[in-house]
User: Fold these one by one.
Assistant:
Number 1:
Amino acid sequence: MSTQIRFQRGRFGALARSAQALAAVALVLTAQAPAFAQDAEDDAAAAVTDEKDVKWFALTGGDVYTGTGAVLHGATVLCKDKKISAIGYDLDIPDGAEVMDVSGNRVYPGLIASASFGLFGGGGELADSVDPYNRNMILALAAGVTTAVNGSQVAKLKRGEIEGVVIKDGAFESFNYSKSSPSSKAQLREKLETAAAYLRDYRQWENDVRSNKDLKEPAKKGVDQKVLDVLQGRLLPTFNADERTDLLEIARLAQRFGFRPIIRGCREGWVVADELGRAGAMAVITPRERRTRSEDLVREGGSSIENAAILYKHGVQVSVIPQSPGISLGGIVGRDLLHYSTEAAYAIRGGLPDDAALAALTIVPARMLGVDWRVGTLEPGKDADMIVTDGDLMHYQTWVQWAIVDGKVAYDKQEEMYFAHIRPRPEAALAPEVRVDPGEENPAEPPAPAEEAEKPAEQPEGGGGQ
C-alpha cells in the first residue's frame, strides 16, 4: 500500500514539475510575443515591397513553339523579372504587368549563334568593351538571335544594357587534330594518354585510401588541365574538320578516351555518320556549303544537302551556322546571320525534321556551350528570351516582329529604320498594354486630347457657289 502511495506521489510530483516548466515556457513566449509579432509584420512588409519591385511581362494569344516538341496555340507566356514563370492558358496575370497581345504570330525560343563576330562591338573582354547600341547587334536581333558566342564567351544581345551581358566564360576549348598537322595530332594523343593515366591512378588512390590513410594523392605533373577537364566531362572539346579521314580519327579518339567532341564543318560527316554517332559527336554544319567530291577518290565524299539529316538519323546532334557568322550588308545575299533560319530551312530541304531544325538553332548550340539550363527552350524557370515572328520561322518571307531578352523587349521591328517599312504591322499592335489595379491611374493611358479647335463650316456640295 505504501509503495503504491509513494508511486502516485512521485507521479504527481513529476506532473507538477512539468506544469511548472510549461508555465515558464508560456511566460517566455508571452514576453517575446510582441517581438515575434513585430518580426512577422516586418517580413510581411518586406514581402509586399519585394512584390512591388517584381516586373511581370506577358505575351498573350500567340502560338507558342516551346522547342521541347510542344506547340500551344493561342497560349500565354508569363514572365517574372528575367525568368519564365508559366506557359499555358487562362493564366492569372498580375496587375501592373506589361502585356503584349501577339495573336496571329508565333513565339519561339531566342536563337543561339554558336559562332559570331562583330555583334558586340569593341574587342577583348565584353564586360569592358561591349557596345550595346552597335548596329550589328540590332540586325542580329532582327534575325532572331538573342544569344551568341564572342571569342570564348557566351553573351546575350541586351540592347541598351551592359549589365549581365556575359553568361559564361570559357565555353569551349579548340584542339587541332588533322592530317595537315601530324605534330599536333601526336601532341594531343600524348596529352590524352597522360591525363587518362592520371585519372586511373587517382581513382585507384580514392579506393585504396579508405583502408590506408597514409597514401599520397597522385601528382598532376605533366597533366594538361584542359585535357583533364575534357576527360572529366567538364569541358567539350571542339575540332575543325571536314574530310572523312580526319572525322574518322576524331570519332575513334573520342570513343577510346570517352569524351564527346564538337566538330565544326563536318562536311563529309554524312559518309561516316555511324562512327560519329557512336562517339556521341555534335556537329556544327553549314547545309548550303558546296564542295564536289575529289576525282582522285573512288569513295563517296564532298558535300551533301542531306548531311544534317543523315547525321541526325545516326544520333549526332546537329547545330546550324551560316557561312559567315557575322552581319554582312554586301556580298552574297543570305550567307550571314541575317538569314540564320534560312540555313536551317536548307537542312529541312535535305530531309532534317522540322523540330530538329528548330533545335539546331536553339537547344543544341545551347548544349554545346553549356548554357542549356538557361536558354534554348521556353520552359518555366529558364531565361525569358524569345522571339515573335509573323509566320513559320524557317520561311524566307517571315519577319521577326519582336525579340525579348531577359523579359524585356530588345527589338521591335516597327520601331527600327531597317525593316519597319516592309509589311508594317496594324497600328493596334504597336504598343503593349499595361494592366493596373482598377483604382490606379493607367500609366500607359495617353493624356486626354486637348479641346478640339472650332471647325470651319462645312462647304456645301458642288464646291461653294462657284
Number 2:
Amino acid sequence: MAGDLRPISSWQAHLPEGEHFSPDNLICEESLPRLWVKVLSTDPDQRLIYDSSGKWMLRGEFLEESGSVARAMYASGLRAGERVILSGAASTRLVVYYAAALRLGLVVVPMNPGFTESEVFHVVRDVKPSGAIVDSAALAGLLAEIVKQQEFSVPFSGPGAGLPLPHGVFRIFFVDDEVEASGGSEVPMDAAWRDAPALIAYTSGTTGRPKGAILSHGNLLASARSLNIAWRWTESDRLILALPLFHMHGLGVGINGSLCVGSSVILLEKFEADRVLTAIREFSASLFFGVPTMYQRLLEAEKLDEVRSLRLLVSGSAPLPEKVQREIAHRTGAAVLERYGTTESLIDISNPYVGERQAGCVGFPLPGVEVAFSGSKNEIFIGGPTVFSGYLNDSVATAAAFPMGAGWFATGDVGSVDARGYVSIIGRLKDVIITGGYNVYPKEVEDALRSHFAVTDVAVAGVQSETWGEEVVAFVVKSAD
C-alpha cells in the first residue's frame, strides 16, 4: 500500500446471500461489445430500446443495425483506435451508432451538444478526431470547419494500419441517415480487449481547460457488471432514462448497464417530471436513474405516487439533500438509493440494494472497487478495475491524479466512514460547483464574465440550493465606465 492510504472493503454488503464474488469475473468477457453480442443474441425478438419515435427496437434489430453501421464506418476508412465525437439528443439511433463505434474498436468522445464554439474547438484540437456522429447540421458544419482550420494529421492505429486509406479525412455521420451494410464478414468487429481505450470523457479540474479521461473497455465493463450485481439488475427490468447521453450517468450507467443484461430502456429526450411519471405507468417500468434536481421536481408533481411501482430509484452526480430523500420516502414509501462516482473511476460507492439506504451517505464500495482515505482531511482514493489510465495529452495532470502511485486515483473529494462502514462525502478539495448534476468550474465562468466590457473583476462560488444542490454565484466588480 502506497503512502498513508487507509483502505476499506465492504463488498459483501452488495452481494446476494451466499454468492461468491471475484473481481476477475467483472471483466472476463474482455469488452462491452463481446458481452452485448453474447447477451442480445439470446431471444432476439425481445424489446430493447424505445424513444420519441414511438417505436421499439428489438435485440436482434439492434445487433443487426449496429453491425451495419460499423461496416459502413469501416468502409469509410475508419479503423480501430481512431477517435470519433458523439453528440446528440438521446435516441435509439444515437445508441446504435455508439454501439457500432465500440464494436469496430473506435474510441468514442461524448460531447455536450450545448458546448460553445470555444469548448468544441478545445475538444477537437485535443482529440484530433477522425470523425463525428451528430444529429445537428450546425454542429457538423462547425466541426468540419474547426478540423479544416487545425490541419492536423488524424492519428491511426490498430488492425489494418498501413493500408492505403484516406488519411486526415474527417468523416461525419448523421444519426438519422440510413446506411448500407458493406465490407462483409471481413470487417473486424467485437475484437477489442480490456486494455483498449473505449471512451475519452471530458472533465475539468480547478484550473485550465477540460481534460480527457481515457477509459478502457475493461473500465466500462467492470463498472457496468458491478452495478448489475449490486442493484440486482436483470433482463426483466425496464429503465426510464431521461439523462443526457453525453454524461457518464446516462451513457456509462444507464446504457452500458442495460445492454450488459439485455434489459429494456425507455429514452426521454429531456426530463419533464410529468412525462417521467406517466412513462413509469405506461411502460410498467422498474428503474429510474436521476440527479437530485430531478427528484426535487418529482416531489412537485401531482403524479408522484407512480414511483411506488418502481423497484429502484437511483440518485447520483451530486449529493442528494437528506430533506428530499426523506420526503420521497414519507410520501411514497420509496427509498432513493444514493451512489457516488467520478468520470475517471465511474461508479465507486453505493447504498445497498438490500439493507438500509442511509440518508446523507453514499454507502459501501461496490464489488471490485477499492476505496481508501489519505491524510488529515480524509481525501478519497479509488482503486480497482474501473479506474482510468490517465488524461489525454496531459502527463502533468495524470501524475497529479495518482500521487500515491499507479492504480490509486485521488478524487479530490473528502469523506468519512461511520461505525457500520457507510461512507459519507463531506466536502471537496477541488474547487468545483455541482449544480443539477453538472460540474461547473469557477475559473471557466470567471473567464467568460471577464470578457464582458462592463466587468473589471469577478469571483465565482457555489451556494447551497434545495433545487439544484448548488447554485453558481458571481461577485462582480463593475467597470467604472
Number 3:
Amino acid sequence: MNSFRKRSSISGLTVIILTMVLTSCSDTSHWPQFRGPDANMIVTGENLPVEWGEELNVAWTFDVDGDSWTSPIVWGNRVFVASAVAVKINKPKEGEGNSQENQDLYLQDLYRWEVTCVDLETGKELWKQVAHEGSPRIKKHAATNYASETPATDGKRVYVYFGMTGLFCYDMDGTLVWKKDLGAFETQRGWGTGSSPVLYKERLFVKVDNEEHSFLVALDATTGDEIWKVDRDEKTNYGTPFIWENSVRTELVTGGKRVRAYDPTNGDVIWEVQMDGHYNIPSPTADQNHLFMGNAGYRDVPGTFFAIKAGVEGDITPDSGSLSSDGVLWSNPDAPIGSPSPLLFNGLIYMVSSRGGEITCLEAETGKIIYQEKIEKVAACWASPWVNENKIFFMDEKGVTRAIKAGRDFELLHENRLDDRFWASVAVAGDAYLFKGDNKLYCIKN
C-alpha cells in the first residue's frame, strides 16, 4: 500500500473575470461526464422546461439499441450514449436466471458494444461505432447488463469504458484513437461494474473494483499509456471517483469500505477513513472546505455519511464511539443515503432513498437533519438528483420526476412523467434536458 504523503493587478483581475465568464458560458452547453461539468448536478442553464411528458415539450426521441444504464454526455451539438447490443442470447431456464448453469450460459452469449453520437438539435444519428463484438468475459446477474459506465469527453476525444470488456477512445468524429484492456475480474454476485471514468488535466482515471484484484489507474488521455497504478484493498464497488479541488489542493477521492484521497499526479494516498454501510454506490459532493461522502445501506445494514475537512492527511477515522476527528467534521452512522448521489446546494445536503420515496435534508455545517419527508407512490430511485432555479429534482425508475422547493421547508411542487424505465442520471445542455431510458433517449425543451 502506498505510504501517506506530507503534503492582482487590474489587468490580471480582468483576465480572471473574463476567464470565469467564458468558462461559465461553456459549461452551460457541455455536460462532459457523469453528474455534469463539476460532478455536482448543479444546473445553471436557463429556460429549461418546468413541465414535460410524452406529448409535452419533447423536442425529439432517439431509439437506443441494446441495454445500458449509462448516462448521456454532451459536448456542443453532440450527444454520446453507449450500450451493449445482444446479437445472440441463450435463453436461461425459466425461474433460474441466476443459477450456476445459467451464469455459464451468459458467457456464451454474443454482444456488440456500441458508441453512438446523436445531433443535439435534430436527434439524428451522426455516427455509430462498434467498440467490440464477442462474448462477455465475466458472468452477470440476470437483472444487469454489460454497459453501466457513463462516458467522458474533453471536447477533443470521447472515452468509453465498458467495464471488463475494455476502454475505448474515439475522436469527436468517431475514429478510434486508442483502446486498452484493463483486465476481466469477477464482480460480486455478477452485478457487474458501474464506476465511470474521470478526466482531469489530460489524465483519465479509472477505478476497477472487483472480487479478485481491485486497483485505480491513471492513463494519458491522449495515448492511453499508463502513468501510474495502485492496488486497492477493496472488493466490488460502484461509486465514480471524484476530483476535489478544495481550498488546499486537488485530490482524487474514491469510495469503498475505506474512503481514500489520492494525489492525482502520482497515486499516493493522502488520507483515508474507515466507512461502514453496505455498498459504495453514491459518489461524493463537496465545496471548497468539506467533502461529503457516504455508503448506501441495505436491509439490516444502515448507511453512513461523513463530512471531511480539506487539507487533512493520514488515517482520519474517528475513535470508537466518536462521530468526529481531526479530519472529520461530523458523521452520521445511520444515514438515510441510498444509491443516488447526495446533492449539495446553498449549505444544505439532499439525499434521496433508493426505495420508499424518502427525502432527507441535512445542514452541511453540522450534519443536523432539517427534515425527512416521505412522498407516496415513488418507485425505486437510482438516478442522481439535480438542482435548477431553486428547485430540487429527482426521477424514479418509472419516469416520474418530482420537484421540491430548495430550502429548509419541505414543499412538493409538481410532477412530470415519461413512459420508460430510467436508471441513468440526467444530462443538461443549454436549454435542454436529456433523459436516457431503457428504450429511448429523450430531448426535453420548451
Number 4:
Amino acid sequence: FAGGPTGHANAGSAPVVPRKEATFPSEVAGVVDNLIREYGFTFSGTDLNRFIVRAVRLREAVKFEFTKNLSAALSLLVEFGEYHGLNRESLSFLPIEHLLALANRSPAADWAAGARKLIDQNRIRYELVAAISLPDLIFSERDLEVVALQRRRPNFVTQKRVVARACRLVTNQMTTSMPDLAGAIVLIENADPGFDWLFGKGIGGLVTKFGGAASHMTIRCAEFGLPAAIGCGEQIFEGLSGAESALLDCAEQRVEPYAL
C-alpha cells in the first residue's frame, strides 16, 4: 500500500521518508522468542512482529476504503434529505430501515410528512434516554439503583506535553461553523476514522471520550507523533469540556483543565 502504513497517498511530490520498522524492545525480544518455542510454534519473534505490523497496516487500509464508501453513501442521504426538506440533524433520528425501504421504489406523496412524524417521536425518545444516567459497566441490579461514575485511565500516545486552549467538537455544530483548531487540544467523543481530517488542521493534541489502545485514532496519533489521550471516559472528558485550556502530559499520564 503506497503512501504509508494506512494506505493514504502522499500529497504533491513530497519525498517519501522511509519509516523505521517497528521491533520488539531488546529486553522483550528474548522473552517473546522463549514463549513462542514454549508453545510449540516454529516462527520467530521477528516473524511475529512483522505479521503484527502488516496486519495493523492492512486493517487500517481496509477501514479507510470502507469508510470512504460509507461517507459517499451518507452524502447521498444528505442530498436526499435536503430534497425532501430534512436536514442532517433530522435525518439522524430516522431509522435506516425507513430509508432502505425506498431502495426499489419511489417515495409516496406523503413520505416526507410520515418521516417528520417519526423523527419527532424518535427525538423525544432520544432526549428521554439521554436523561438516564447509567454506569459504564453493570455487574448487578444494584448498579442501576446507585450509579457510580468510574474514572477511566486513558490510553496516552507519545511522551509529549502540551498546554493549549481546549476545543470540543460537537458533530451537529460542525455542519454550520468550524472553530480555528490550529494548536488547540481538540476534544471529540469517538476515536473513529471520520475525524482523520483533524490531522490536516495543525492541532496540538487530541482527547477522546471513547476508544482504546487499538482504536483508529490511537494508531493515527502514533503515526503523526501527536500527543493524545484516547478513551478518557465520562468524568475526565466532561471536566475538560467546560475548560478554556487543558494540560495534556502523556509522559506523566495526566490530562486535566489548566489555567493559563
